[in-house]
Hints:
By secondary structure, the chain is mainly α.
Amino acid sequence: MDGDTLYSIGELARRTGLTVKTIRFYSDRGIVAPTDRSPAGYRRYTIDAVARLDLVRTLRDLGLDLSTIRGVVERELSLPEIAATHAEALAVRIRVLRLRHAVLTAVAERGLTAEETDLVHKLARLSGDERRRLIGDFLDAAFDGLGADPAFAGIRRSMTPEVPDDAGVEQVRAWVEWAELALNPDFRAGMRRMAGDHAAEQAQGDTTGPRRDLTAVVRDQAGSALAAGIDPASRQADPIVAALAAHHAHVLGRSDDAELRRLLLARLEGVNDARRDRHFQLLAVINGWPAPQSLAPALSWSIQAVRVRTER
């Protein structure tokens, strides 16, 4: 059959896979108009109608409305421009659906109350500016006024969540949980205490030599002891406790004695907050970073090892 051949609506349906009712619907709305009619008044279409119907079906599958489709097939509207507009609108809808999924999952998994659900929903829907204000308020509460130590700038950056515009469901869920933590007064106070202890240590003691953070020393020393299966109360743990105490003594600029060990124990107990670990795990999810190693086992081992020796 050549381009002059006319097809009935039934033949057109067989060629396109659409129903006669659907083709008649598009025809009645001028989207795929018949080329001619038979003597009996039946609609007749050329082969071009097949291509046009294929395009209409594709555009409908992509969510375009009939008036827009009519403009595209009649070449009154630019398909690339229409596609860009709808892609942008679809991206917004996808983001909304991700937010809803994250909130509903949190409600189901955590057994939230109606009030908690309302808070989670509000946190998930915060705008970019609102998120930045919440983050800034939390970081200011933890670090503001603690001095001009350049290390704090790096610490602030490492504690800043950056939610991407195309955040996935897991990132949205992590953001909501992070925001809940950041709004928790007790958690804020704990982070402030840790930052204050760090600032105080940096402002006193021996200013020569390396000033590694205590948690880094714990990770190395106690982490190795855990891997080796060393009992924190055993004599094998003595050199490790001595290394932790020596580090703290260097930081504070004092000798390793019973009081130093008590200060070390208090510092370790202050840092050993499960929410701190969770905070950094959530940051890693939000920012797409590798999952951090939990400090809880090494801190717990260190606390037990130091406490045993301070109580003797």
